[in-house]
């Protein structure tokens, strides 16, 4: 909560043209393909990470070593998804020598599991290369999450693990202290509430 301190309050509800490089706190959720439990499982209300879960946990926390414009809020790896809070300071000169994927200078990497634009969810092909040219922007939420997802996939596959992400991710702009506290508590308590979680396959039958 101290990282937020209400300094990123966003009064406008008109987000059609919102620049996702702008200063703000963003609640991120990204899932595995088909909800597979690649990251481990919840045992006695505590998350037990698999090898891939450990990779995801480590690489999320590495984001701040590759992106100058980011602070990390609360974060949790769940069996088939991750929740985390990214806090951007609005500095467009975001890359710290590499793109967060092991040394590609100025890289903004979309997940290797899909040819999908991270902002629009549309397939990338010859018909929408213009979209690719304008998005995602270096230092944007899409760029950061795309690079993170790509790095997790790369390292998992390099170690011989089967793994795929769902193509898209979900973001929510946190507008005030009350919302930040509610979301942070949701993330922290996610493992103990797994029995009622919408991503729990037992609740999808």
Textual characterization of the structure:
The protein is α+β, with helices and mostly antiparallel strands. The protein has one domain: Alpha-Beta Plaits (2-Layer Sandwich), CATH 3.30.70. It is built from four helices and six strands, in the order E-E-E-H-E-E-H-H-E-H. It has helices at residues 51-61, 129-134, 141-158, 177-189, and strands at 24-32, 40-43, 46-49, 70-77, 81-88, 165-174. The radius of gyration is 17 Å and the shape is globular. Residues 10-14, 94-107 and 109-134 have low confidence and may be disordered.
Low-confidence stretches: 10-14, 94-107, 109-134
Give me the Rg, rounded.
Answer: 17 Å
What is the structural class? alpha+beta
Task: Count all strands and give the number.
Answer: 6
Which outline best applies?
Answer: globular
